[in-house]
Amino acid sequence: MTDQAQTPSPQSRSLAMNGFDWKRLSRHGGLIALALLLLINILITPNFLQLQTLFVNISQVATIAIVAVGMTLVIATAGIDLSVGAVMAVAGALAPLIFLSDFAQANPSLGLALSIAVPILVALVCGLFNGVLVAYLGVQPIIATLIFFISGRGIAQVLTNGNLQTFSHPGFSYIGTGKILGLPFQGWLVLVIAVVFWWVVNRTMFGRRILAVGGNEKAARLTGTPVRRVKIGVYVISAGLSGIAGLIVVAINSASDAARIGNLMELDAIAAAVVGGTLLMGGKAPIFGAILGAIIIQLVKYTLLANGVADEVALIAKAGIIVLAVYVQQGRKE
Amino acid sequence: MLDTNAFDLRKYLQGNGQSVGVWIALVAMILFGALRYDNFTGAYNISSFLNYNSMFIAISLGMCFVIMTGGIDLSVGSVVAFTSVCVAYLSPYGIQVALPGGILAGMAIGALNAFFVIKMRIPPFIATLATMLGAKGGALVISGRQTISVDWGSNFTKFGMGNVGGLLPWSIIVVMVLAVGLWVVLEKTSIGRTVEAIGGGEDATRMMGLPVDRAKAFVYILSGGCAGLAGVILASGFGAGQPLEGVGWELSAIASVVVGGTLLTGGLGSVPATVAGALLLGLVFNILNFENGRGVISFSAYWQMVVRGMFLFVVILLQSRFSRAAAKQGA
Under the cellular component aspect of Gene Ontology, which terms does the record hold (chain B) (predicted)? Predict the structure, then answer.
């Protein structure tokens, strides 16, 4: 058993853990992590077992979960979308500009509809841009989406001139603060989105094609999969979901700050997808895994916050979780 | 041996094709600026331009090596912020302590990147995205979210504010020495050859028995060190450690590297063209600032981000055309 004394390299790790089914553990790593987090919170976090805590967490996890579903689809094609946070900022900056305009004041219901539809449409266009870069120009997804990662937030700030937009608009705020059957509206929205995309991935041609492109792009192309269209599709979906998430953030806060909406969301979403079992090399799209991942990420945030850990330390903790999650996943691959 | 030589020659010609374009664009923009604006060629503009852009040249150089191995380093902007805070605390001991200290701090984060990528086999963009977060958090923790003023009594600020003959800042001299050194490393040393080979095909390079892991560790630590140097220049030139600076700088560095003809898929790369690329991007901002001064356009700080993104977009468009043309020629 000299193996055990050595530092475990990824190759030898499964050997090093002699007599222990590491693979099975990592397969259920998400659920175990969730159970541990809940246990820790029940033990140390004051007032954890209260409805209020549940509501706060549901309303905050929604944005991560929605973006993570889109990210999961993109990663399933072996891509990545770093622009999600910036797209959220663009959508979130646009909405108040629209419903606070004179036109919307004069036509309240049309204004409200436009303030939801237009930002999502713009988000879809951003996704189309990403998708065309990746699918038709052959730009690597990291670089293609890096363009919006930076300039998207710049655009949002240019739109609002960097100003914080505050508002009181009960109609619009419903998507962030409304309740259905006592549970936050966006929690239900997450459920609907998750079920729809689970269905898309598992029951439709498009879903099968996503997995085919991620599993083996060349083979997919040779068997007649429209690889380019599939890729554009996932980036458009990811951006559209980011747009929705951007609207929710703005609605929750009754304020829109282009510098902060969706800031670092790409990391949360990637982490949620990875924790949920999405392989970074593509070919898998566990939608409900991503939701579980999002819940874990949110609970970690909440745990740190509720126990008085500073934001910047939480940043470092999050960085650690991402590295750990990907590392464990690498082990699973072998 | 014959094969390798022929391969190198073609790579050289391909690389040169785009880098010639960069130099032409650079000269054209300087001419444009010199003819259009009064103070463009004035000593003040030249020296402040070189001083500010020495930071971007430094991070672009490190990024160039990382990208050549097919990797990416998204942490550079945060590392600049982190080291600028570190050296602000070191500034009372003078530049002779702060400069190596800042570079070492950057190299330490680079080493962490290298560990994640090589030992833990985490994809470079995830690993460096995580250290981007970590370094940002670290900068905020050690600075207590404050801008940290440097010690003005020591010789620390002379490095970032002083210059030779009123024209050449010390910072650009140091960065140029670094550039020449890295050029030699890339073209003349075995580690440089290994870096290029990895980008061409990592598995093949490994099978040839080249020290792939060592070369990859080298590029990430180098990139961290370059960002550390930029952090020293930042703190010394602006008189403060700035935990919130550096946002989006990685994009500038990537754009400079790409405009210099380095293929994002790795393998092909040029140090002088990367420097030219960084200068070109700097000139775009310089000229936009002059336009702003003339009141023709209103160029708020937020536009900087948009311009960076558009610049990268245009470069990628050109490169995808260029590499397609190259592929056609090769076929």
Answer: plasma membrane
